[in-house]
Amino acid sequence: MNNELHQKVLTWLKTAGNSLLASLESDLEVEEKTSASDLVTRMDKEVEAYFFREIKAAYPNHQVIGEEGITEEVKSTQGTLWIIDPIDGTLNYVKQHRCFAIMLGLYHDGQPIAGYIYDVAQGEIYHAWVGQGVYINGQALTPLPINSLSESLIIGNLVSFMTNWSNSQAVFEKALGLRYYGCSAYGIMAVIRGEAGLYLSRELKPWDFAAGLAIMTAMGYPVSRPDGRSLNILEASPVIFAHPNIYQEALQLMN
Amino acid sequence: MNNELHQKVLTWLKTAGNSLLASLESDLEVEEKTSASDLVTRMDKEVEAYFFREIKAAYPNHQVIGEEGITEEVKSTQGTLWIIDPIDGTLNYVKQHRCFAIMLGLYHDGQPIAGYIYDVAQGEIYHAWVGQGVYINGQALTPLPINSLSESLIIGNLVSFMTNWSNSQAVFEKALGLRYYGCSAYGIMAVIRGEAGLYLSRELKPWDFAAGLAIMTAMGYPVSRPDGRSLNILEASPVIFAHPNIYQEALQLMN
What we know:
homodimer
């Protein structure tokens, strides 16, 4: 772990988190992107611009991409790359004032180095550096046990199951129950803590999965497309995050 | 508000909550009831027995019913009646170690008097006495604004929508998005806070809805069957908890 960089990230996360909490006291200035449920707020843009500015000031040679596209165009994964989601779960941020997160993935030559997920309303920062375990607010995390799909909760959205996307109904029928939080970070954190055996999504953008892919890699947990292929960190993709004890079982049902 | 009774309830809730938190450190001793996802633990029974004992010691003439049936058989709603859910969301308690609650409804001659919901892992007690507003940990709650179904999140389980129970697909399609937490108390609390416009369930038992019905009555929020009929507090029923600004809109879609 690069401790200087780690301390900088913690400072940036807390500063950005405080500005998000403060923003909940005022008008959120919401704009629709592709539909009424696909929102962007002034704060999505401000937080992304803040990280971009701080990273570039500290590490001018690093590349940065983020959800709101106010960073830079990145065509190669060579060197060090930061992937940022300034607010994951913007609809929850606007409507619930909780269940949203800031996510940061750090990659070198395309390989995950570190991931950070900040559950702002809960005041919990999850982080992991590959090779060094996973922590919540600096305390080592001990996940709850997961043994089999039939003994596990799973996380995914309604339309995936209604349309039987990638045979997901078979996964739903075998699992103990379904939960849905409307926030990728919440699905990923539930798998990390062992509260759910898997989280699946029909399409995640790089900023939706980069932090989770890095943290789960550090834990030795599989993350892939439902057909088992690995993710390209510059491309949108369907994704399954799973506990190692149920990954193969889920993949067999989905293929 | 009967302040002596209120203080007793707070003491009982905290004592029971502490024993639930402590239980998460040990083996939960789970039994299946009707299926693998319908569980009861030693703690469901212990917490219910604890409330029953304390209530009967303090108020020998009050009647008490609870989920685990270790209370008493109640055939009439005359006099004062306590309705207890010792752990709402037992599956979450077992699998997630969070997203569960203790719920207490207090009724007199069949009319709601007070409701308590204790989100144990979050350390938050919601309470309301009819005529006196709603509080979280003693602080008056200001709900987030809810204007229309199309601008609201809703809460309900996957199978309700997959099977189009009571035309629920029309509600889903009009709403901004769906969330599902696997715990009635979490659905009710989300409507109370204004994070969701409605919570619907195909069947709730009296202990699943009694506290929420009392709190929402205190707030002036409607709670009914999807056909608009009111609930019988001694009978299981389909239930819709809704913000007043979207209740009629939802009911029209469901009938």
